[in-house]
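User: Recombinase family protein. Structure?
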Amino acid sequence: MNEVIGNPLLDKFMKNLIIQILAMVSEQERNESKRRQAQGIKAVKEEGVYKGRPLLYSVDAKDPQKRIIYHRVVEMLEQVNTIGKEVNITRHTVHRIKQNKNI
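Assistant: Predicted structure:
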């Protein structure tokens, strides 16, 4: 790309064209990768092996702090806003925990 054709407009055009071609190839590779990933996930789900990401707040969460927060949210019988402020999590997270627990 260091070679100069002589005409500044033509030089700029060539550089932009090369960049656009590289961007297009990169985008196509990304789309193909996503397609293959989706195929793999579908195949594994059909076998019953793929379960998705584990819940962040649950009885068997890896982080003990998040397990404690989960138990506090489940035990509290207050408004969602109050629970969220007290345990320092969002209302959306409180709703998700309660929905998973069917409270």
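The first helix runs from residue 8 to 47. The chain has two domains: 1-52, 64-101.
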